[in-house]
């Protein structure tokens, strides 16, 4: 069965995806936690200041924050 599914995935990916979508997962590893904690969101400027405080250089900071600045 594994070999057939590998062949199907390589040669007929649409059919493979349709079959794969109908197979239920064998395990569920979900942990649900409810908390009443308040979440504090920081601005990009606050995050940048904290990164500079721990000693990261400007190049690294720019890479990390590039998505936040858009």
Detail the topology: elements first, then pairings.
Layout: H1 2-11, H2 13-21, H3 44-53, H4 58-65
Helix pairs in contact: 1-2
What would you note in describing this structure?
It is built from 4 helices and no strands. The protein has 70 residues and is mainly alpha-helical. Helix 1 crosses helix 2.
List keywords for this structure.
single chain, 53% helix, 0% strand, 70 residues, mainly alpha
Short structural description:
With 70 residues, the chain is mostly helical.
What is the overall number of helices?
4
Distance between the termini: 47 Å
What fraction of residues sit in β-strands?
A: under 5%
The biggest beta sheet is recorded as: none
Which structural class should the secondary elements be placed in?
Answer: mainly alpha
Helix content: 40-55%
Residue runs with pLDDT of under 50 for 5 or more positions:
none
